[in-house]
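Task: complex structure prediction.
Instruction: return structure tokens for all chains below.
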Amino acid sequence: MTILEYLLLDVILLFLLIVTSVTVFFLRNLFAATMVLSLYSLVMSLVWLDLDAADVALTEAAVGAGIATVLLIGALVVVGAEERKHHRIHWPALVLVILTTGALVYGTFDLPRFGDATAPAQTHVAPEYIAQSVTKLHSDDHGSKKNSADHPESDNFHGHVPNLVTSVIVNYRAYDTLFEVAVIFTAGVSLILLLGRRVAGNGGEP
Amino acid sequence: MRDQVILRVVSKIAAPFILVFGFYVIAHGELSPGGGFQGGVVLASAFILYGLVFGLAELDAIVPRRVTDALTGAGVLLYLLVGLAGIFGDYRFLDYTPLRITGSESAESWGMTLVEYGVGITVASVMITVYREVSQAGSAEK
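Output:
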């Protein structure tokens, strides 16, 4: 594919993102809105894939398009499919939202440009991580043969994993991941304690 | 949706493949895109599909509440134990070096795989729990 074709693909995908998000805003039927939101996640996952972020794409497809849709539909069973009609505009809320949006957009002016090679994300610790995992796989190719004679069970990765993202998540950032799992665990336990007891027990009284 | 033949047959056929794909994503997290979190969500989606089609009672018969409750903690515990193995092997917390189960170069692989399974188990059981509580809240309101 040429640069132009990539550009065309990007424009189409981003256009679809805008169309789906605006559609969700204007839909009055909540079931339809949920489905379009799921479509938004699917397109978003394609955008991630286009940016070579396959891990994020997989997460977006599984969580955004899959689980989140199911949970929203589960919530719709409780609240009903039709949105209540109200045309009144809440002016203080509108002003607050416009101010917040303005502040956020103003904040983006300070961010490095997209794909900037001199951005801190590219120059800080990333080269070190890449040197320790990805290039290891290629530079050690000729040395691996004599090495594998000493350790017949070893692979060619020399204990370093080819997927840089996983390597960062569960190796260099293993503490962060541990506490992320602890957060998910806490959320699950809270749900069991709050909702599970209410349904099984005596109608909400502790 | 219990009386829809096509849904029942398709979900029964699809569920094992979704489970295998979930385990594949967890186990191959170090080689290909994915990992514990994504794999756990895919695993949970197989059970959620089953619950959607056959109802909560059938899901409870396959995976009892006690099992998901226990697995929620078991995943975190597995992660912590891998971390503690580093301390007891005279290294630092979450250092995978003592896990040389099949040769010195496999330590990182073992550590990362076990940790990914820990993440996957917790995420999958929490997702099943979330689905269960939300859909039960829905049926209780009716």
